[in-house]
Amino acid sequence: MQPTCCPRKHPQLRNEHPEIFKKLSEGQVSAVLAAASSPVFVLTGGPGCGKTFTVRAVVDALLALGQSVALCAPTGECEWHAARSAWGKWVWRAGIGA
Known about the structure:
Elements: H1 12-16, H2 18-21, H3 26-36, H4 51-64, H5 76-87
């Protein structure tokens, strides 16, 4: 789950919001920083590798930076699972392409 490129546009993020990063592995930290530095970010990985946990941290980091977040997934089930994890029980679904 290591991103191939991780520009450090938001080096203060880790220092200003340590609560976002305290339970993440180094690979997950790199993914969050890469997502915060990119207009589009794709996260992939096998079952149980921490994608959902990382998505939650990415959303928290982007919201802490005052950025908006759009979440996409290949299936409705994946989308719903990720969205519920990232935003809690109440999720607004745009239904784009449905």
